[in-house]
Amino acid sequence: MSDIDVDEPRPLNGAVSSRLLIATVVVAVIVFLGDLLVPLGIAGGVLYVVAVLLALWLPPLYVYGFAGACTVLTVVGYFASLEGGDLLIDLANRVVAVFAIWVVAILGLHRRKLSETVHRHGQIIDQVQDAVITVDMDGIIDYWNKGAESVFGYSAREIVGQSVRILYASEDAEVVRPAVLDRLIAQGSAELETKGVRQNGEVIVIRQWLLLRRDEGYEPAGVIFQASDVTRRREVEKAATRMEAFYQNVLDELPIQVAIFDSEGRFLYLNPASLSIPERRAWIIGRTEREYFEHVGRNVHLAEERDSYRRQAIAERAKVTYEEEFETRSGERRSYAHGFFPVFGADGKLDKVLGFRYDITDHKRTAWALQESLARLKAIVDTAGDGILTIDGDGIVESCNQAAQRLFGFEPTEAIGRHIDTLIARGGGEEGKGFYEEHLTKIVSTSTPEIGEFAGLKKDGAAFPVEVATSKLRLNDQPLFTAIVRDLSNRKRAERALLRYNERLEAFRQMDQAILTASSTKAVASVAVDHLARLVPAAVVCIALFDTAEDVASVLSVQCEGRSSGESSASIRSFLGAAEESEVEEHISRACIQGHVVLAQNGSQSGSDLGSIVAIPLVVKDTVIGMLKLEARSGAQFGSEDLDIAREVAGVLAIAINDARLFEEVDASRERMQALSHRLVEVQEQERRLIARELHDEIGQALTGLKFSLENLEKHSGLQTVEQIEESRRITLQLLARVRDLSLDLRPAMLDDLGLLPALLWLADRYSKQTGVEVRFKHSGLDGRLDPDIETAAYRIVQEALTNVARHAGRAQAEILLIASAETLIARVRDDGAGFDLKEVLDRKNSSGLSGMYERASLLGGTLSIETERGRGTTVAAEFPLTADETMEMPS
Amino acid sequence: MIRIVLADDHQIVRQGLRKIIDAEEGLSVIAEASDGIETIKIVEETVPDVLVVDLMMPGLNGLAVIRQIVQRVEQTQIVVLSMHADDAYVLTALRTGAIAYVLKDSPSGDLLEAIRRAAVGRRYLSAPLSERAMEAYVEKAKSSALDPYELLTPREQEILQLTAEGNTSTQIAERLSISPRTVEKHRSNMMSKLDLHVQADVVRYAIHRGIISSDLT
Question: Which of A118, A313, A467, A680 pairs with A153 at a CA distance of 20 to 30 A?
Fold first, then answer.
């Protein structure tokens, strides 16, 4: 290739070629004119060759054109030129000339084309960055292109003629050469990578393609080297390998499932996150997902679906992502984000497809939950019974739920945009200020709602009571109010009803209590009338008891317009306002059947069964004992509720009156009994007192008189009679003493004359003397006189107790304790004797002594207690209540 | 001459007395009265030296008569002639203003002696009665300062002690073989009699009284 002529004709550029064209034409014309004018003979035609040669620098068409033109001119010249020679020779000449023209033109063009090719190749080789070096069989460099210069640093001038070995690192040169040559000779080409040395000594990695050059005899003539410096590329490749390893690691460890597919969808790589079992991972490489699914027996539908997305990614040349949901084998529903990412090579062709997948179940669940809770919240707000409004900072309604629409009577969205003042009227406060100004803007707290009662305004302007709980919050730094509006109409109604019911109950309770504590029928009736007048809007409330036998209605209590009046009586007929006797029975029986009877109607409402005068029977054991009569205020009628109340009252009343009646009867008989028994004691005492006084005063005084007269007689008589009289006087004295004792036993006059304490002191003294029982007497506060009945009772009780001591206690000591305070008198007798079984004694019922003591104490409102036990002595204690006026000053 | 008015509701007694008194030198019954009101009227009219009066008279009893006369007629000394030999009567009569007390069944000489002494303003008591007996009675009739502890029944005293010793109602009930409710009742009675309000008061009282010793606590 070294003989390529750089001066070979080549097509020239425009301006040059036109000048050359003119020059060529000129030459051709001169030759033609010369031929015409001067017979050129044989040479004539050959001169055209010059023109053709010139034309060789023009495009080939011109060359052929000129060749043709010169041929024509040669022919023309043959006929037109001046004859000078032999025509035949001239013809032959000219044929030769034409032949020469064409040979030159064709060969010239061919030659030119060849040289152009070579030139172009040389240029290409020079343009190539790779080094292109040719060596002969001895290794001497005979060609060195520009690429070689840049790779190795040597210029062609410096290196041509030198051995190729200097390009190699010493250790490579010897080893490589024979083996390479052998391979070259055997195979014709070789590719190898060795280390090379640049001119500046820098060691580089060179990749080379060796081509055996053969000569015409097919003998090895040399080697063509194409070498490139791949140092950088190798370094990059090494880095890339490291990177790849790194990426491999990353992919292996990545929690995201990553797979790499080839263009056909076969797995090239699959990270452990995708498939944890290494054997399966190994198996799957080179296979498609579908094959894998078939292999493991899973539904291939999923694989097909994935395939379709993968193909979509390839078709769109862009990443495709989608969400995939399926059930795991354990039945759990899981969600995955799936994606394919096509990777295209430098050639624009699909290289591989990256597939990735990660679990978004939790994320999805959160999203689902959020969605669900939002939906639920909305549902709650919408289905809430209370109206819920949100109001912006200017008082304009922003949203309202269905309940609020219902509440205010708006169509959906109608309320939105209105001012809150058109929905909720202000609750008191300054004139001219609405709910918004008066209430909303005053909310300070953003944590607790403020609750108030207001008037709601319906769309049609009707007002209704509402409870509004307003809260303030800040949203995006704008105040926002929420108002929860509750319709209080029902509640208010219920509250009122409850209140009424409560009042009724309370009244009933009070009435029951009052009735229970009231002891007389009159008191019961008056309580009932009082309460009923408060519960029922009646002008007159009247309770009467009937005595049907006598036809008398005794009115127990009447209340007329708040004024009570006492008892009176009338006939049952007039009480009921009946015209006929028969009507009375009819009224009563109707009352029993219906629970009430209407005695008078008001005005024209005669159809109503609730009249203006109503009577309700008081029934006890199927007997009407009386009636409760109610008269309405003029023009008014009773309602059914009023009647219910009245019936209830009547029910309670009937029983209470009956009870009170029975109670009164029992009370009366008990009082009679008590009075009787009191009288009995009194009579007994009276009797004793009389007898005692009789004994003492009459008989005793008579004896005294007798004694004095005997004494008188004695003074004025003789001795014998004196003895007789003395005897009489002695007998009289004995008699006197006996009478006195008897009198004292019956009833000591001292009790009446001097009081309880002297009487008991005397009694104790006498008792000790008579029985030998030692009596200790303690007393306190008995300086005055007490109620004679109490004195008597206390005296008798102590007397009886002492008698019992003497009778049962054996030899014992007794103690009398007597204490009077402002309120009570306590008399107690205690002994340390044998004691007795109280129950047994009381059960015997013949112990008039003990029961007499009880009787005496209880008649005066006192109590008596006996505490005894066998071997433990006996204590009898009586306690009497004293009233202030019962203690009187002791005469002094 | 000692002027005497006799007051007794019994004719026979007055007659007997009048004979005995009139038989004596220097004594003279100037008037008789048969009931309390009459007695006062006669004494006011006659102003006798001595009034002999029975304690038991209809209309106005003897004690009331004595009180009236002591107030209205200072000169008249009063001799009580009574069937009641009781100290209480005697004392009451003397306290009311009588100067002598003669029992009806004592010898008639006693009455004459009493009238004579009374006329000169000296006290006289019939033989079985004496000043000493009077004093003893006065002593007996004096209010005794009562210890509230005395008010307790034996049961209550037991329960006081057991409670003070720290026993519960149930323990006390077991100990005394009675029901706890009865114990409670006794205890509340005991505490109200002693004016005690809480358990600590009971213990304090018991220690103070020496019912339990203080080193028990």
Answer: A118
